[in-house]
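[Meeting: bench + compute handoff]

Bench side (C.D.) handed over the final construct sequence. Compute side (W.E.) agreed to return the predicted structure before the next meeting so the bench team could plan truncations. Sequence as handed over:
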Amino acid sequence: MEQEPYIALENFNLTWKFDEIKEFEVYWHRGLSIFTLANYFKRTTDEVFLLVMDLATQGYIRARSNGIYTSHAEKISTNLSIARMKKHYKRYDVLLGYSFFWRTEDIMTFQILWNSNWPVCDIAASLNREVIEVAILVVDQASKGKIQPREESLFGKDGAMDAIIRKSAS
C-alpha cells in the first residue's frame, strides 16, 4: 500500500498581497534584513526567506552584499523591478510551480544527506528534484526541528544562497 505524500510547508502562509510585494521590494533594496522585514510584515522569517528565494530565482530582486542580513541600500533596477509583474494580480503565491510533495523515503534520504553536509545542489541531483524544492524541504524540516543548521551555512559546501539561485535558474 502506497503512503500518502508528505506536503512540505503546509502550515505556512505563502500568499502575499501584490501591494505587500511592491513594498517588500522597496525595503529589500533599502537593505533591511529578513528579520526586520518579517517583523514589519508580521510574517515568519521562513516565509520572508522563501519570498526572497522566489523573487530572486525569477529575477525580480538580486542578491545583496550581506544576503538576508542588513545590507547597504541599493538602487532598484528597472530591469529587475517588481513593477514588471502583471498589475492585475491582487495576490502573489510564493514558489508557484514547484512541488511541495515528498515521499517518506526521500525525506529520510534527504535527512541523511543533509546531516552528512552534502551541498543542496548535490542533494537535489541525488533525489532528482529541483534545487528550490530541496530548499523548500530544508525550511520545512528545520522549522519542525527535524534538521539543524549546519556550520557551513544553510547551503552546506555550496556557500551562499545566490550561488544556489544561479544554479537553479540555469
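W.E. noted at the follow-up: The chain has a mean pLDDT of 81. C.D. will use this when planning the next construct.
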